[in-house]
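Exercise 7. Predict the joint structure of the components listed below.
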Amino acid sequence: MLCDIIQCMDRQKLIRNFCIIAHIDHGKSTLADRLMEATATLTKRELSDQMLDSMDIERERGITIKLTPVRMFYEYEGQRYTFNLIDTPGHVDFTYEVSRSLAACEGAVLVVDSAQGVEAQTLANVYLALDNNLEIVPVINKIDLPAARPDEVKQEIEDIIGLPADEAPCISAKEGINIDDVLRAIAKNVPPPQGDIDKPLKALIFDSYYDNYKGAVCLVRIVDGSAKAGDRITMMSNGKVYDVTEVGVFQPKPVPIDRLSAGDVGYLCASIKSIADTAPGDTITYANNPTAEPCPGYKKVKPVVYSGIYPADGSKYEDLKDALERLKLNDASLFYEPETSSALGFGFRCGFLGLLHMEIIEERLEREFDLDIITTAPGVVYKVYTANGMTEVTNPSNLPPAGEIDYMEEPVVTASIYTPPEYIGPIMELCQDKRGEYLNMTYIEKTRVLITYTMPLNEIVYDFFDGLKSRSRGYASFDYEQAGYRKSDLVKLDIMLNGDICDALSIIVHRDKAYARGRAMAEKLKDVIPRKLFEIPIQAAIGGKVIARETIKALRKDVLAKCYGGDVTRKKKLLEKQKEGKKRMRQFGTVEIPSEAFMSVLKLDNDKK
Amino acid sequence: MTIDTEKSYGVYVHIPFCKAKCKYCAFVSTPDFSLQKTYVDAIIKEINDSPFKDGYVDTVYIGGGTPSCLFCGGLADIMSAVRNNFRVSDSAEITVECNPESVSTDFIAECKDCGVNRISMGLQSSCDNVLRAIGRVHTYADYIKAVELLSRSFDSISSDIILGLPEQTSDDVINSITTVAQYCSHVSVYALTVEDGTPLYNSGYIPSDDGVADLYDLAYDKLSELGFARYEVSNFALNGRESKHNKKYWECMPYIGFGVAAHGYDGARTRFLHGDDITKYIACPNAESYALTDKDLYNEYVMLRLRTEKGIVTDDFRKRFGYDFNVRNAEALSMLKSEKLLICTDGAIRITPDKMFVMNSIIEQLMLD
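Solution:
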């Protein structure tokens, strides 16, 4: 027994569970590839094959392009170490998922581009890693670049993050320079797991995907105890009970093994039908002999951004429904429910973790399922207080009449913006314009400043990111975290076409912004809605009061000037095409609205530039 | 192919040669006149080999390009071939297109000799700066000189005016119409179409729709005042001197096309087309044919007929299609009527006169999907 414990402790002594964190484009995946290559986990050829495979799996299963966790072996000072590399999604939308992946590790390799230095995402991820008590191994990448300034970047890491970076390996993942330094630093600096194999099973789910044969596959870190096929387990968040059918590790393809023990990272299958039951952050334990405490930090993920998704062709509603169902299979965080719009017919109100998540889903619907969709303006979850209490509103059309509303609250975020000092002015102007409240400004170094603001999320989902990019010529980087709700003077802005409210164009905005938004939307719609044989008034209104009006003048020329023998067929095809094009538009009363109209009103500010 | 003795065919011959190409022109033409002789030989060969041989022909239209820049005798050779291979009516309308810069007494004499009785000549604009801007080779004065010469020999002359040209003013349009009305019994008034790939297109010029509509209304009023009646959206005639040949297109009557890019129609289910490569045509002067489906026939008929002031004649429709247009389209017709977009009278359905310039969106509603 004691022998077992010692053996287990010894075993864990040689395990290193780590992730790689980096700002986008700082070289995370390239480094991951190099580590696999250097540890002979994969040959170069397999590497490219493997990458392709994982992309395929990725497509089937998930939100972000990320690697499955990989088990590698590394010889160091005569010992054979087991390295488990756990990949993390790199985007703010998935902060919670990132935090669960981090919780499965003891260390994090922090990759910093030696030309770019520390960026917004770097820092956000570092803080998450520190929150999870990870040992951070800084690595300076891209030293092959002419613009590389490794010493300054090391200094930055020490100054900004407060990590000693003196001994940080200086590498080029792309060129394969000094990769072994990284492996050595991991073996040396990342602490081993400290699990207790004799305790009841306690496994943290940090990710999952759906497999057609095995059901939901949980990616787990065994904290205490062990798991093997035949074990009766339960999910601690919902008490559901399953029998384990298979456990294994990724090398990087899934390979079944007899048992996963404390300290291990691997996968677990138990004929689980839906990934909704394998939520990241949940704890798996024995059904009959449970662990006393679940892993800390589990929370139910709730969508923060909502938008309506409708088929461009109304008859494709069922196809859209099937597609969303398929996506939901592998993406528990995607939320959708049917809704009806007077302008767009039958569709879905969809909830996402953030803007990127929304874009990914939209893109997948279009690319993988070949659907033409119409997306309404993204909105957030508003808390509406009436005499009957609080309701959450995600669709502007569901907002109670203004007279019934006591007050409303909107979600706010803490936005961190990194920028060269020359753009401070325009960026602060932008933040003010987006109703931001200034929090702080720090000079990270002479050439870079961190500005923090509290900002309403609905301004961020509108067009903040584009505005930031254009005002900083792409130099600013940006990240945000949710910061609760605050009371706000919000109104519903309606657009009336030919006198009727077009519900799909309604938005909730701050009162101070309503006038300008309304006018801009009316102007924009005037340009994108095709002229008809009659005049079409476009009005923007708040609570029935018209605040802006434009008129689409009646069509005056719509004729094929010349039509003789030469080209009857061509001319006829032209007309047929024109007719076909109109069918793809949404008929709203007597007005035809092209699909782009719904998107174009989301991008008002950019067009003005 | 059997020759339908009931049918009166139109004959179209395309002459793809121009001194210079106008900047808005997307038709097939070349300034390489060295190809003219072999090209005319090829045309004659195609006419001699026509599957419609011995058909009864009551209109001939020689268009281009610029037929008036053809070598001396070329026109006569083509006309002889037509007459040798078809039964050309004594009262046939025989039109030749020409441009002001290439009208000569020799050209007129040749036309007269081979029985040409109608001339169509482009003016386009009465302003020299506009003419220059669109790459026309002639001036306003050239036009006057040419049309005076022509009018001594021909009593049926048509001229073209284009609306929406760069630098064009409403005065120009009025002036063009007044000029043309002095010499011509027929006027075509086209809205400029900026075709892909033309120099005008590449220059980025886009005429304003509303501006063109204003000019069209102006032209319509002026022409009416001068006694010209519109019989097709872009065509106006004095005292009923409508183009018999062009009416065949809009009334879905048969016509035979010869030459590059020329099209033909057997009046039933077959259309013919030629490629637009001149050397290929010279090597192999043949047309290809394609069949029309019921839907094609119907959509073409509706589209073409509604271009005319006469509109869709219900008897003619029933004869062709075997069913009643009004019954088939009862719902759409009553809606379009109530919106005052269509007029239904005397066994005909036509577009309301002041909606002719927005006819596409009306026609679409009557076309089959």
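Discussion. The CA atoms of residues 204 and 283 of chain A lie 5 Å apart.
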